């Protein structure tokens, strides 16, 4: 552990957090008469003016359907929608924009892969490999697939710190494994998985890998080619963009070889009652009118993120995390759940004698928004033998002062429950 | 803070710390599980019925202070009540925690249950207070399904 007090000093000087906060109008509202302290970023992040204004402008002056009109607005909307795809491609360093599919969110992206790649390639007796720290959205679609096919879902366990046991992951990879699906960063524990290494291990066995990047993209720069990920997914709303939109990245050869997901308009080249010729990727996977404003809003969110110096952002976020860890751990009766060496953005904790739900209500009265519950990761809770945790999750617009407010809030929880 | 005090009244904190009738009942007439998937609250309510009267009631499980205290207080209130009386209390309790109790003079009739009036100011917590009651009602009706408040 670094010396936090010196880091604290440096951070106060180096990172223009107050300036950044002004870009996010919601951060200046009050909740129950107290300034909002928003520490529920892992659930959904707030939106900068750039995103809000871009979406407003779209509906004010640019709105129409895409890929189906010769008129001015339709061409404009199409151009912007496709430009958003290129923005995402560059953001992920994908080879081609054809590898970027717009979907509703991470959940839909994973379901898409399970329903197409999965249905085609997973047969009776085969296996799908996940890890013990997955979000329900990276468990249930695979479970459903395995049930349908008579295949087996294998789970690489996590250790007490909340890290995937790599030897087990390696051991569970075999000729039977048709796909491995792993999260990049755990939403319940904050663990950063060594996905590059895990992908390499899987590839040695010829196993393609889907990475659930929902919690990673808000915190670290992603290079899908460097990772050599076969599929990579994330949600716009967690990276400061609008809800209702997500990204599935897939390697060209995989996307071309998979059957379509949903049928309808836009995903076809020609239709007769006898036969339909499907469109090329990426459109093959985008049936129906897409979330055009969402895609354009996501591109604005990415533009915003690109305007920041990510080396500094990552350093700042690590400082917040370190400080939060240190200050929370100093509270008597508080136990941090998830103590991986590599962590980002998330501190889950439990407090002796106080259920997380009660912590959440009392903090809310102080204007502090955290998440309480099982975080859609019940197997993680079961591993630790707890029903739920309280979870503070950070973004680059959070401040050291907000961590202090959180600490005072928890002291108040203890007061209410008579633990002081 | 005043709202918080109204929610976490001493009686609620006390029943949370020392829940009454917090045990399994081996010879129960019926038992039903109640589950709140949002926060992971999970209780089993055990009832012993004799000619339509609740002669024993106990519970087990885990959850937040509101749900646990609600189950505990409920268990102390319902013992000796008939099925019909329990159902009336179920309705009354519902109105109370939803803030639909318009009868200003009713504090007495609610007795210990009145402590839960503060829940109505916290819409997100109404489910916590109601879960044990729903579960109890299903047990009364000898429904075996798992109760969910979602
Ligand atoms: C790790 C992880 N995967 C998947 C998801 C699902 O994302 P969405 O609900 O945006 O589809 C989440 C969101 O909570 C997540 O944290």
Report low-confidence residues of chain B grouped into runs of 5 or more.
none
Strand line-up of the largest beta sheet of chain B:
3-2-1-4
Topology order of chain B in helix (H) and strand (E) letters: HHEEEHHHHE
Total number of domains of chain A: 2
Mind telling me which CATH architecture of chain B this is? Alpha-Beta Complex
What is the average per-residue confidence, as pLDDT of chain A, rounded to a whole number? Answer: 95
Class computed from helices, strands and strand pairing of chain A: alpha/beta
Tell me the fraction of residues in β-strands of chain A, as a range.
15-25%
Shape of chain A: globular
Total number of β-strand segments of chain B? 4
Q: What composes the largest sheet of chain B?
A: 4 strands, mixed
Largest interface, C-beta within 8 A: A-B, 19 and 22 residues
What share of residues of chain B is helical?
40-55%
The small-molecule ligands in this entry are: pyridoxal-5'-phosphate
Q: What features would you describe in this structure?
A:
- The complex is a heterodimer of chains A (420) and B (150).
- Chain A has 2 domains: 4-40 and 309-416, Aspartate Aminotransferase, domain 1 (Alpha-Beta Complex); 52-306, 3-Layer(aba) Sandwich (Aspartate Aminotransferase, domain 2).
- Chain A contains 15 helices and 17 strands.
- Chain A has helices spanning 4-14, 17-22, 49-62, 72-92, 106-121, 140-149, 166-172, 195-204, 224-227, 252-257, 292-306, 310-329, 356-365, 378-384, 400-416; strands at 30-31, 34-35, 37-38, 100-103, 127-131, 152-156, 177-183, 209-212, 231-235, 246-250, 268-271, 276-278, 334-337, 346-351, 368-369, 371-373, 389-393.
- A 7-stranded mixed sheet of chain A has the order 4-10-9-8-7-5-6, with helices on both faces.
- The longest helix of chain A has 21 residues, at 72-92.
- The two termini of chain A are 29 Å apart.
- The relative contact order of chain A is 0.17.
- The model of chain A has no long low-confidence stretch (mean pLDDT 95).
- Chain B is an alpha+beta fold and 150 residues long.
- Chain B has a single domain (3-143), classed as Sufe protein. Chain: A.
- Helices cover 41% and strands 19% of the residues of chain B.
- Chain B has helices at 2-7, 10-17, 65-78, 83-97, 107-110, 126-140; strands at residues 30-36, 41-50, 53-62, 147-148.
- In chain B, strands 3-2-1-4 form a 4-stranded mixed sheet, covered by helices on one side.
- In chain B, a hairpin with a 2-residue loop joins β2 (41-50) and β3.
- The chains are: A alpha/beta (420), B alpha+beta (150).
- Pyridoxal-5'-phosphate (PLP) is lined by residues 105-107, 135, 137-138, 183, 187, 212, 214-215, 235, 246, 376 of chain A.
């Amino acid at each position: 552990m670094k010396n936090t007090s010196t880091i604290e000093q440096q951070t106060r000087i180096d990172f223009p957090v107050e300036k950044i906060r002004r870009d996010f109008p919601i951060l200046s509202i009050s909740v129950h008469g107290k300034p909002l302290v928003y520490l529920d970023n892992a659930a959904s992040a707030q939106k900068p003016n750039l995103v809000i204004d871009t979406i407003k402008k779209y509906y004010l002056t640019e709105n129409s359907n895409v890929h189906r009109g010769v008129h001015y607005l339709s061409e404009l909307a199409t151009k912007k929608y496709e430009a958003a795809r290129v923005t995402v491609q560059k953001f992920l360093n994908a080879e081609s924009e054809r590898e970027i599919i717009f979907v509703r969110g991470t959940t839909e992206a994973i379901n898409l892969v399970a329903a197409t790649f999965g249905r085609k390639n997973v047969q009776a007796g085969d296996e799908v490999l996940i890890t013990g720290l997955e979000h329900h959205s990276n468990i249930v679609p695979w479970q459903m697939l395995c049930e349908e096919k008579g295949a087996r879902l294998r789970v690489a366990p996590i250790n007490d710190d909340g890290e995937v046991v790599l030897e087990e992951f390696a051991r569970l990879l075999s000729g039977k494994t048709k796909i491995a699906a792993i999260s990049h960063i755990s939403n319940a524990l904050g663990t950063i998985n060594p996905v590059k290494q895990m992908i390499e291990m899987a590839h040695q066995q010829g196993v393609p890998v889907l990475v659930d990047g929902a919690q990673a993209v808000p915190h670290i720069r992603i290079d899908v080619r460097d990772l050599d990920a076969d599929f990579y997914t994330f949600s716009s709303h967690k990276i400061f963009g609008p809800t209702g939109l997500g990204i599935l990245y897939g390697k060209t050869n995989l996307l071309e070889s998979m059957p379509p997901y949903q049928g309808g308009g836009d995903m076809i080249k020609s239709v007769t009652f006898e036969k339909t010729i499907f469109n090329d990727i990426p459109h093959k996977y985008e049936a129906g009118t897409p979330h055009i404003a969402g895609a354009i809003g996501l591109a604005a969110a990415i533009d915003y993120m690109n305007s920041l110096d990510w080396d500094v952002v990552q350093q700042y976020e690590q400082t917040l995390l370190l400080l939060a860890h240190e200050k929370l751990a100093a509270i008597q009766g508080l136990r941090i759940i998830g103590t991986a060496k590599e962590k980002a953005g998330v501190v889950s904790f439990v407090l002796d004698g106080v259920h997380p739900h009660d912590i959440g209500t009392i903090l809310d009265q102080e204007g502090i928004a955290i998440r309480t519950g099982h975080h859609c990761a019940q197997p993680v809770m079961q591993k630790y033998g707890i029903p739920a945790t309280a979870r503070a999750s950070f973004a680059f617009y959070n401040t050291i002062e907000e961590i202090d407010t959180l600490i005072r809030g928890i002291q108040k929880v203890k007061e209410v429950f008579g633990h002081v | 803070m005043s709202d918080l005090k109204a929610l976490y009244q001493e009686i609620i904190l006390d029943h949370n710390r020392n829940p009454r009738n917090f045990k399994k009942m081996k010879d129960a007439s019926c038992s039903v599980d109640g589950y709140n998937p949002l926060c992971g609250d999970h209780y089993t309510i055990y009832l012993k019925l004799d000619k339509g009267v609740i002669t024993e009631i106990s519970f087990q499980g885990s959850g937040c202070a509101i749900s646990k205290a609600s189950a505990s207080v409920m268990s102390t209130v319902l013992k000796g009540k008939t099925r019909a009386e329990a159902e009336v209390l179920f309705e009354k309790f519902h109105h109370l925690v939803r803030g639909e109790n318009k009868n200003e003079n009713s504090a007495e009739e609610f007795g210990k249950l009145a402590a839960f009036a503060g829940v109505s100011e916290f819409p997100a917590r109404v489910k916590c207070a109601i879960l044990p009651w729903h579960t109890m009602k299903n047990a009364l009706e000898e429904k075996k399904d798992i109760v969910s408040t979602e």
